[in-house]
């Protein structure tokens, strides 16, 4: 029997916007600081990548918000911009590649993640994930 990992050893944090990144990273920061863990912040854009090499501006702003939250807490953060037809599968792929101990997010009232999490995404995260899924409290409300 293998030893259980702390969910915040390596946490994959899917985020949809700069505000979502600030909220999710604030919710995860205390846990990551406690474990000395690291964050993998992933922003998934539905579809295929554009042919140019640039990042969409909102992705850059989203990652800047995440870095700001974790730099203040002295937490190691990796940012990943991913394109995929299915958001859950893309998040799972990042979790696999990162050897994540958990996937964590903060649902936002009226936001994209809340809408997605009310349907197939929640079901997929809970029933198809091979690692813990953590719902973080909203520290900005």
């Amino acid at each position: 029997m293998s030893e259980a990992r702390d969910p915040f050893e390596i946490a994959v944090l899917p985020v949809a916007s700069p505000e979502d990144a600030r909220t999710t990273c604030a919710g995860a920061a205390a846990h990551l600081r406690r474990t000395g863990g690291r964050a993998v912040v992933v922003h998934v854009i539905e579809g295929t990548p554009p042919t140019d090499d640039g990042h969409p501006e909102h992705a850059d702003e989203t990652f800047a918000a995440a870095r700001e939250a974790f730099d203040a807490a002295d937490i190691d953060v990796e940012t990943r911009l991913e394109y995929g037809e299915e958001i859950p599968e893309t998040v799972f792929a990042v979790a696999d590649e990162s050897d994540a101990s958990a996937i964590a997010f903060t649902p936002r009232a009226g936001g994209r993640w809340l809408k997605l999490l009310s349907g197939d995404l929640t079901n997929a995260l809970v029933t198809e994930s091979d690692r813990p899924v953590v719902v973080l409290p909203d520290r900005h409300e």
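The chain has a mean pLDDT of 84. Helices lie at 18-35, 57-72, 87-98, 112-117, 120-128.
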